[in-house]
Amino acid sequence: MTDIERDQTPETEAERRRNGFSLVELMVVIFIIGLLATVVLINVLPSQDKAMVVKARSDIATLEQGMEMYRLDVASYPGQAEGLTALKTPPANLSIPQNYRSGGYVKDVPSDPWGHPYQYQVPGRDGRPFEIFSLGADGQPGGADLNADIYAGQN
Predict the structure, then answer these.
(1) Digit-coded pLDDT (tens) for 61-70
(2) What is the distance between the alpha carbons of residues 61 and 57, in angstroms, rounded to a whole number?
(3) Is there a cis peptide before residue 123, judged by omega within 30 degrees of 0?
(4) How far apart are the C-alpha atoms of 122 and 114, rounded to whole Å?
């Protein structure tokens, strides 16, 4: 090797060492990314639960509107036995079947966001002619927080 080549070799190794990352630096960066991901998940996951409750209320309001359109056409609400399916297919015991809207009153009778069927009760609470509600995340009557029953106008 010439003197020029020997002089360049140490500089090249020093530059190579400065251009890379050490294991400690990589571990610190990975730890920081993990902390940030944890903070984001803690703040985002409760929003999904709230969105499911809002969707349930929206579905209930849509079903109640369909129920009112049904009543305007047929002159009564469906009975407990007919339930919400009366909004999609005409019940067999209709007094004036020709008044039933072709295609029904809703495109589909949805399940609540947790996969349970919406409940239909005749008569409803507080003197209402009917009540449509969800049993909440647990699918059982009553409950608290996400497991609480969900009604349309309820906060």
Answers:
(1) 999 999 999 8
(2) 6
(3) yes
(4) 23
Tokens of 63: 């079903």
Give me 64's structure tokens: 């109640």
Sign, CA torsion 3/5/9/11: positive
Structural domains counted in the chain: 1
Q: 133 forms bridges with which residues in the sheet?
A: 119, 151
The residue whose two tokens read 């630096």 is: 25
Residue carrying the six token digits 């029904």: 104
Structural domain range at position 61: 3-151
pLDDT 10s digits, 22-79:
888 889 999 999 999 988 888 877 778 888 888 999 999 999 999 999 899 888 899 8
Q: What is the CATH number of the domain that holds 88?
A: 3.30.700.10
3-state SS of 81-138 is CCHHHHHCCCCCCCCCHHHCCCCCCCCCCCECCCCCECEEECCCHHHCCCEEEECCCC
